[in-house]
Amino acid sequence: MPFAKRIVEPQLLCRHPIPNDEGLLFEDLCSITNVALSRTLRQLSDLSKHACSLFQEIENEIVNTNQRVWALQNKIGKIQQTASALDPKLEAV
Q1: Phi then psi for 28, rounded to 5 degrees?
Q2: d(CA 76, CA 82)
């Protein structure tokens, strides 16, 4: 079972404790929407950073796997050349 490297959870965008006695957190609806949109953009930015790092890790794994496959293909090719060079009449099986 793989270990979790990242935990991504959505954050609440507009929930805050009321700071003053009057109960006003923001002046108007425009400021509320600006805060919500800016926090949404920040969450999307963080999510895209995580996605980018995931894709980079996958790319590194694919490159490493490709190198290992090429090494195995070279070894198999050498074994095939050696086996084809042997004379079955002269070699004991």
Answers
A1: -150, 180
A2: 10
Which of 33, 42, 41, 27 shows the shortest CA–CA distance to 14?
A: 33
DSSP for residue 2: P
For residues 37 and 30, what is the distance between their CA atoms, to the nearest angstrom? 10
Separation CA 52–CA 49 (nearest Å): 5
Are 89 and 45 in contact by the 8 Å Cβ rule? The answer is no
CA 92 to chain centre: 53
The 10s digit of each residue's pLDDT in 16-71 is 666 666 666 556 778 778 888 998 999 999 999 999 999 999 999 999 999 999 99
